[in-house]
Amino acid sequence: MNSIESGKWRYATKKFDASKKVADSTIKELEEVFNLVPTSYGLQPARLMVVTNQELKNKLVEKCYGQAQVRDCSHLLVFTTVTVDAAYIEDYFTRTMELRGTPAETLAPFKKQLLSSFEKMTAEQNKAWAVNQAYIALGMVMSACAEKAIDSCPMEGFIPAQVDEMLGLEALGMQSCLLLPVGYRAADDMFATMPKVRLPLSDAVKHIS
Ligand SMILES: Cc1cc2nc3c(=O)[nH]c(=O)nc-3n(C[C@H](O)[C@H](O)[C@H](O)COP(=O)(O)O)c2cc1C
Question: What's the rounded Cα separation, in Å, for the pair 79 and 71?
Fold first, then answer.
């Protein structure tokens, strides 16, 4: 499928066929797509938690306002963020020096700028910045799913603090912000055949030439 075809094929799946599972090798590819996503400054403040434990998936339904996709999907992808602080930034520069062989003195001005920017941020600003990066990751992983004819449903409809508690994310320094159940659509999901509700292209896109 090209990108227009997969964009038309994809829809926010409301009902998954719980008997169909995505191959582990395909999930591994999606994990790599996630890790290749571009992020602001390259700091990668988003982390992915992949949940297959059926008992947990069952329990998560009530934390998602009764949305059964989290129970019936093959894999539940939980997009989370971590806090970027001075130690995190240090690690990032150490990795950059190791992987690129860039001398510390070349990176010093950029490092100083990042340390100063993040020091000035409130906790809310830090979180909001990180969540923005998670949304980019969500979009790219969703596109990769569609290219592979894997169904998904982006979800903001859940109670993050309670999901974090259930999955033990706090101990890992992770906070959930988005869910993406992935799998295969149920044959009777009526949303699969509904026409897409979209603006006329001329309203959605303007041109200045
Ligand atoms: C960030 C985000 C959060 C969403 N949250 C939910 C959700 O909690 N539950 C749900 O069923 N759909 C959710 N959706 C799906 C949208 O309702 C859906 O993408 C939109 O209506 C367009 O339909 P389509 O994706 O089927 O083309 C969400 C979509 C996005 C991008």
Answer: 17
Residue 1 has pLDDT above 90, yes or no: no
The two three-digit tokens of residue 137, written as one number: 């990751």
Q: Which residues line ligand 1 (CB under 6 A)?
A: 11-12, 14, 67, 153-157, 196
In sequence order, what E strands does the chain have?
A: 46-51, 75-81, 151-152, 175-183
The whole-angstrom separation of Cα 122 and Cα 128 is 10
Instruction: Name the residue with the closest Cα to ligand 1, atom 7.
Output: 155
H or E stretch covering 106: helix 104-120
CA 52 / ligand 1 centre spacing (Å): 22
Q: For 14-55, how does the pLDDT look when each residue is reduced to its tens digit (9 = 90+)? A: 999 999 999 999 999 999 999 999 999 999 999 999 999 999
Which residue minimizes the CA distance to atom 29 of ligand 1?
154
Is 148 in a helix, a strand, or coil?
A: coil
pLDDT in tens, 87-100: 999 999 999 999 99
For residue 183, how far is its CA from the centre of ligand 1 (angstroms)?
Answer: 16
The arrangement of secondary structure in 3-204, i.e. its CATH architecture, is 3-Layer(aba) Sandwich (3.40)
pTM of structure: 0.98
CA distance 171 to 151: 31
Contact 49, 78 (CB under 8 A): yes
Going from N- to C-terminal start, the domains of the chain cover 3-204
